[in-house]
Specification:
By secondary structure, the chain is α/β, with parallel strands linked by helices. The chain has 2 domains: 230 residues, FAD/NAD(P)-binding domain, CATH 3.50.50.60; 148 residues, D-Amino Acid Oxidase, subunit A, domain 2 (D-Amino Acid Oxidase, Chain A, domain 2), CATH 3.30.9. 28% of the residues lie in helices and 25% in strands. Strands 5-6-4-14-15-16-13-17 form an 8-stranded mixed sheet. A 6-stranded mixed sheet has the order 8-2-1-12-19-18, with helices on both faces. Strands 9-10-11 form a 3-stranded antiparallel sheet, with no helix packed on it. A hairpin with a 5-residue loop joins strand 18 and strand 19. Helix 2 crosses helix 9 and helix 3 packs across helix 9. Bound molecules: flavin-adenine dinucleotide (FAD). The site of flavin-adenine dinucleotide has 38 residues, from helix 2 and strand 13. Flavin-adenine dinucleotide binds next to helix 2 and strand 13. It is found in: Cytoplasm.
């Protein structure tokens, strides 16, 4: 069913009784051409682009819970392409361009809102780093503006500009950055993939990998054995668990990242703002709640819930940036499991096992990557060679030392 003003009007006249389910909740077959494990944004986008652009439609997406129950439905919805390194920059800009055409492509309202992302700086050294990043972005054709203190004050007068420890000196603005509605992205990809024949199989946990020598030829699931010549992992924080089933260890750690939303207030924050002197970022949802987050919890975990010290830490940073936030009540907080890589950058690559493909290491920045990640992973699976903008996301870089350390923090997941 095509969604349009005409279908809406037609359904209104019919009392809204004619809407059909957005996607088929399929039962698994015994074999497919491609199995995508993980019904988050990345897995569903991969299946969609495989069907749409690479002519492979005999695909199942296997999801252990319901689609979007992982990080795709838990993130703070920020999209941007303000990257510094040549290995990252073209990929994230490709993603941004896909976001810009996504709703038309999927025929689905993903609430893509390019309301701007502003990274604040608080010292001369940080200004230099922001200018360098902005210049690198512009050299790659990405929009970037360096704002001084007065321009930031005009935009966000309520921030604590004269904070004794962290005075605000300015910010790097990407106006094309912003937010998108995370659930809608999942539902939009699911609907578009299902329309092209992809089986979306929920409540189907992968419990084992079937190996024939050095080749993976299928999976064991809670709904039976399913075979396929190509098995693609897009399971975010559960990656190391899944690869362990095939006998592989990954250069990843799983950590919880929490997010928070306040009670709804009138429009206050025009875009996304990040604090440069602590890990804190904030935006405002269309419902009015302030959505914010900060650091990962400092220990490894597969539990989708966080701990109180991080709540305190995030709220402290929030108070340092905009003290008036202390007058608000917090409504909810939640956690998701991050697949933290050792250099903070992702992996889209073959594994050492034939037939097993890997999409992982997104840390807490994978939502913005969803469209490009899906496209590039589909390219790799279909053609067995990396997409030109994702060549740097190799698994063997952790052995060769050719790291993509965007933040220059080294192999410390807690700092990425
Ligand atoms: C609190 C929070 C805030 C974030 N904020 C941002 C942000 O603002 N911007 C940004 O770019 N990124 C952000 N991220 C990161 C982003 O959400 C993730 O990097 C991205 O969503 C990961 O890809 P995914 O959507 O495919 O993962 P997921 O949605 O986690 O998908 C993986 C799926 O695999 C399934 N699965 C796991 N094991 C199995 C199994 N054995 N069998 C079958 N299925 C399995 C899971 O149930 C899950 O649904 C944030 C994350 C969190 C938690």
């Amino acid at each position: 069913m095509h969604y349009s003003i005409f279908s809406l009007a037609r359904q209104a006249l019919l009392g809204h009784r004619g809407w059909t389910a957005a996607w088929r909740d399929a039962s698994p077959k015994s074999s497919y051409d491609v199995l995508v494990i993980g019904g988050g944004g990345h897995g569903l986008a991969t299946a969609y682009y495989l069907a749409r652009h690479f002519g492979i439609a005999n695909i199942a997406v296997l999801e252990k819970g319901w689609i979007g129950s992982g990080n795709a439905g838990r993130n703070t919805t920020i999209i941007r392409s303000n990257y510094l390194l040549p290995g990252n920059n073209p990929f994230y800009e490709f993603s941004m361009q896909l976001w810009e055409g996504l709703e038309k492509d999927l025929n689905y309202n993903a609430m893509v809102s390019q309301r701007g992302v502003l990274n604040l700086f608080h010292s001369d050294a940080q200004r230099d780093a922001a200018a360098r990043r902005g210049n690198a972005m512009r050299l790659h054709g990405v929009d970037a503006e360096l704002l001084d203190r007065t321009a930031v004050r005009r935009m966000l007068p309520f921030l604590d500009f004269d904070n004794a420890r962290f005075p605000i000196e300015g910010g790097l603005l990407q106006r094309r950055g912003g937010t998108a509605r995370h659930d809608a992205v999942v539902w939009g990809y699911a609907r578009a993939a299902s329309d092209r024949g992809v089986d979306i199989v929920q409540n189907c946990e992968v419990t084992g990998m079937i190996r024939e020598g050095d080749r993976v030829v299928g999976v064991e699931t809670t709904r039976g054995t399913i075979r396929a010549p190509k098995v693609a992992l897009a399971v975010a924080g559960n990656t190391s668990r899944l690869t362990a089933m095939a006998g592989l260890r990954m250069p990843l750690e799983s950590h919880v990242l929490q997010a928070f939303v306040s009670e709804a207030i009138k429009p206050l924050i025009p875009g996304v703002v990040t604090f440069g002197a602590g890990h804190f970022y904030i935006s405002q949802s269309d419902k009015g709640g302030l959505v914010f987050g900060g650091d990962i919890d400092g220990y490894n975990s597969y539990a989708q819930r966080g701990n109180l010290p991080t709540v305190e830490d995030v709220c402290e940073s929030g108070m340092a940036l905009m003290p008036m936030i202390g007058r608000l009540r917090m409504l909810r907080s939640w956690g998701g499991i991050m697949d933290m890589s050792m250099d903070g950058s992702p992996i889209i690559d073959h594994t050492p096992l034939d037939g097993l493909y890997l999409n992982a290491g997104w840390c807490y920045g994978g939502f913005k990557a969803t469209p490009a990640s899906g496209w590039c992973f589909a390219h790799l699976i279909a053609r067995d060679e990396p997409h030109p903008v994702a060549r740097a996301f190799r698994l063997d870089r952790f052995a060769s030392g050719y790291l993509l350390d965007e933040k220059g923090q080294g192999a410390q997941p807690n700092l990425h």
